[in-house]
Amino acid sequence: MKPLSETLTELGIAFSFPIEIKNTNGYQTYYEDSDGYWRRYERDANGDETYYENSDSYWRRYERDVKGRPTYYENSNGFWRKREYDANGNVTYFEDSNGCKEGIPRSQSCDGKVIEIDGKKYKLTEL
């Protein structure tokens, strides 16, 4: 990504360092200093970071569930992690790129699934 200062210079727009942009909620979305270092953020409606990158080629991104809890994270170093939660907000599954795994992913669990036997429906509950 090209630094904002280059674009402003090309357009003939006067500016001073540091360049800092905030969204309507007051969260920083861009920062650049006179040494050429810059960073930018993307955030969701709750203000939680969903993406970050900087001039050192580092980036990270997050995915969150409807309650804002992180469900997936990855970065430019190749590290990633996944989390799943139960209705009470407890982590029920965790896995990362280092090989750590705890719990059973929902995709392998029958909890909450409905089955039908002889015309009757049953909802499975994991113990």
Relevant terms:
127 residues; mainly beta; nine-stranded antiparallel beta sheet; two-stranded antiparallel sheet; 1 helix
Brief characterization of the structure:
This protein is mainly beta and 127 residues long. It contains one helix and eleven strands. Strands 1-2-3-4-5-6-7-8-9 form a nine-stranded antiparallel sheet, with no helix packed on it. A two-stranded antiparallel sheet has the order 10-11.
What does this structure look like?
The protein is mainly beta and 127 residues long. Helix content is 6%, strand content 44%. The chain contains one helix and eleven strands, in the order αβββββββββββ. The strands form two sheets. It has a nine-stranded antiparallel sheet with strand order 1-2-3-4-5-6-7-8-9, with no helix packed on it. The chain has a two-stranded antiparallel sheet with strand order 10-11. The mean pLDDT is 91.
